[in-house]
Write a structure and sequence with these properties.
It is a single chain. The chain has helices at 2-15, 17-20, 23-28, 46-53, 59-69, 88-99. The chain has 102 residues and is an all-alpha fold. The protein is globular and about 25 Å long. It starts with a helix and ends with a helix.
Length: 102
C-alpha cells in the first residue's frame, strides 16, 4: 500500500504543472533577471501582470506567446525579448504561476 501511495505522489509531481510552477523555474528560465513577484524591475512585477489579466480568458495563451516570442508596448517602451529557449510547456507552467500571484 505504501508503494502505491508513494508512486501516486511521484506521478502527480511529475505531471502536475503546479509542481514546477515556482520561483525556481522562473529563475532557471532567466525570468527573474527582469521581473520580480512584487516589485517592478525592468519588466512589470508578476503580481501586476496577474492583476492586469485577471478575468481575461485569453490571458494564458497571450502570455505564453509573449514569453516565447517577446513583445512590446503593453508595459511601456521597453520590449520583452523573445525567449526561444523556453518550451511551450514551461511557458504555460510559468504563465499559470504568474497569473496565480496575488
Amino acid at each position: 500500500m505504501k508503494r502505491f501511495l508513494l508512486l501516486g505522489m511521484v506521478l502527480y509531481a511529475l505531471v502536475s504543472p503546479s509542481a514546477m510552477a515556482n520561483p525556481d523555474l522562473a529563475k532557471a528560465k532567466n525570468c527573474l533577471a527582469c521581473h520580480a513577484v512584487q516589485t517592478k524591475l525592468v519588466g512589470p512585477a508578476f503580481q501586476a501582470v496577474a492583476a492586469k489579466y485577471a478575468g481575461d480568458n485569453d490571458a494564458e495563451a497571450k502570455l505564453v506567446a509573449k514569453v516565447i516570442k517577446g513583445g512590446a508596448g503593453v508595459w511601456g517602451p521597453l520590449p520583452m525579448p523573445a525567449n526561444p529557449q523556453v518550451t511551450e510547456a514551461d511557458a504555460k507552467t510559468l504563465v499559470k504561476w504568474v497569473l496565480a500571484q496575488k
